[in-house]
Structure formats: C-alpha cells, structure tokens
Specification:
single chain, globular, nine-stranded mixed beta sheet, 8 helices
Amino acid sequence: MNAVRNHPPVQAFHDLFSAGKTGLPGGDGPLLGLRETRFARFADAGIPSQRAEAWKFTNVARHANVPMALGGHVQIGASELSAFFCGGHLARRMIFVNGHVSRDFSHVRGLPEGVSVRVLADAVDDGEVRERIAALDDGRSFTDLNAALMQSGAVIDVADGVHVAFPLQMLFAAVGSQRAATMNHPRLLVRLGRGARLHLIETHAALQDGSTFTNLVSQIELGDEAELIHDRLQAGRDGSVLLSKADMRLGERSRLRQTLASLGGALVRNESTLHLDGTFADAVMNGAFMPTAREHVDNAICVHHRQPDCHSDQFYKGVMDGYGRGVFAGRIVVHEDAQRTNAFQTNNNLLLSDDAEIDSKPELEIYADDV
C-alpha cells in the first residue's frame, strides 16, 4: 500500500480497482486472483517514466495523472459507428463501445464451421481462455493493468485448414467524457490453427468530444503454415489516449502481413513484440503515422528471430506537422539458433513544420553467425 501512496496516479487506479473489481467479468470467480496479482504488480512498478529507456521519448505519466472512470454502457447511434465500418458488405463485425460489446450493431452470424468468435466477457469461465490471458506475463505495467481491469474483448479461434473468405472487423469505439477520462481495457485473443487463413481488421475510433484512455492488449498466435492479414486503423481525437500492446507468435512457415495507420490522438503508443518461433516464418509490418497539432505517436517494435531461415521486414513512414511528434523505435534480435536470418528495417519521415519532431531509434542485436 505504501507503493500505491507514493504514486498519485497509481492511487487513483487503486481506488477504481478496489471499487469495481468484483463487478468486472469473472470478478467473483477464478479470474479474480489473477486480477489482484497483476494489479499488485502494477501498483508496485508504477506508471513508466521517461527515465525508462523504453519510454525515453514519451511522457505517458502526464496523460495518466488525470481523473478517470471505467467506461460504462452508453447509447451510440448507428451513423456514428458506421463511419468506421471497414471490409465491405461481406465483413463480419464485433463492436465494442467503452469496452463493452454492442450486440445491437455487432454481426458475426454465418461464420464457417471451425471459426469461433466469442465475447471475452462471456468466455472468462473457460479455463483455457483464462490460461491464455495469464500466459502473457511480459512484466509491462500496462499489460498488468489491462489484466486487472479488462472489461471485455474478443476470443477468435480458426481451426486447422479453415480459410475465412470474408474480413472480420473488431471495432473499438471510445466515447469521451468532460468530467473524467473514459478508461477502457479491452483484450483481444486470436489463434489460427495449422494452415488457417484470416483477414482481421482492428479499428479504434474516438467518438464525441471529451477525454478517453484506452489500454488494449492483443495476443496473436499463428500455427504452422497459417496466414494472417492484420489491418489496424487508429482514428483518435484531441482528448484521446490509446496504448496498445500486441504480442504475436508465428509457427513454422506461417505468414503475417500487418498494416498500421495512426491518424491522430493526444497520445498513441503502439508496442508490438513479434516472436518468429518456427522455421521459415515470414512477417511484414508496415506502418504510417501522421501526428499534427500537438499529437504524439510512438511506435515501439521488437522482433525476435528465434529459429533458422525466417524473414521479417519493418517499413514505417511518418509525416509530422504543426507541433506533432513521432517516434519510431525498432529493434531486431537475432538469437543464437536463428541462422540464415533475413531481417529488414526502414523508417522514412517527413517534417512539414519547423516545430514538428521525429525521434528514430533503430536497434540490431545479432547472436547468430549466418545472417
């Protein structure tokens, strides 16, 4: 408790957690223990400061030290949401507003056999789902906070050999508040079996004026020879904060094609950790970020080459205007067993004003001989 008192922003999170933990999904069951353990660790570590190398260019504490309230159920018109529909008329969609599924606007009917899309809040009684949530133990403060306060999200499973013929969109809408920042903690679990294929569209939209604070965690697993196209669109507003962490694991001969577009927000932090766990795994990660006014977009990527004959390519472009600030921190780690690795990284940036800023920090660690 002393650690909590020493960090005023953490104290506010502590009060919210203490008051609301039993009302969260699984709050009266086995998940409560994990929530309490992860929150205790978050409280002990505190909000990351710029003294931490991983947060050197981004002051997240300034955005966390504001009044906050867990997002509740709100009514949103179809026209506000439909502006962010992607994937065409054949797409299936699951829509979340302030962290809670909107069953009125979601459409996941007609899925092929072998495809399961569940609401996380309805699935936490499944022991296997709880194990998957607990398995992501990266020591990151905001991952722990997500585990403690997650309201809902989606569990997507595609069985071996199933090719999903239409896109599947996950739309996370955050509705701002003038009194206190609306805080949302969604979790996305995605697993593709051997040889499965899926096109996943992940969209984040800040609706209406006011402040929002979204802390997303995604866990993506590709079985051997699976293929995922993952398109990510982030459309923030002046008062919106989006922190996202994606943990991705690729099996043998699997393929990931990811495209990220960050189109605004007071603060956007995209963290991605990619593990190439199988031989001949292949990943391409493209990104575009365009902060303007006083917006701040931070992209932190770490790719672990763990097996031989894998390929990865990071290609990010930034355009900064006004007082906008962009960050690209790309790290590649070639582990000892990862012989014959092919790894590429490119970051091109354009400053359109004298006050715009970019920080680019490429890193490469090689422990193999043949790269």
